[in-house]
Amino acid sequence: MSNVTIRPAAPADIAAITRIYAEAVLHGTATFEIEPPDEPEMARRYRTLIARDYPYLVAAFDGAIAGYAYAGPYRERPAYKWCVEDSIYVAPEFHRKGIGRLLLTRLIEGSETLGFRQMLGVIGDSANTASVAVHAAAGFRLVGTFQSVGFKHGQWLDTVLMQRTIGGGDTTPP
Hints:
This protein has 174 residues and is an alpha+beta fold. The protein is built from 4 helices and 7 strands; from the N terminus they run E-H-H-E-E-E-H-E-H-E-E. A 7-stranded mixed beta sheet has the order 1-2-3-4-5-7-6. The relative contact order is 0.16.
């Protein structure tokens, strides 16, 4: 899609981000949240990541927010500081148009610029083959699958773990 612009998210984007995420929570299995957070909560999450210098991006298509992505801490303990987990959500009307791939590519670049060394994709639902494929195309390798660790929409769901080295990886100290 040539009319897509990837840019840093801004507070004005939170309403659209909240709508996209609510759709994923209510109808999808990419996230294991059961109740969609409201706009103030999504704004709080956004501010927390931005304050900690994590990249947070949106994809805009003809003025509409088509999707968003961010990197956040994989775990809170200090030794994990150089490892991030990615999150990517695309509005249903923009699925399978390459938006997720564009967002992930820019997210990897932004995370590398910020000095992070590993990026993890923690993909909800092993049946989410599109997300697995987008991560694989971006250089992620399959690390493993946690089987039946979530229960949502009346079914047990797996979590697929994928990993990609960024920047200097583990070849030098941070």
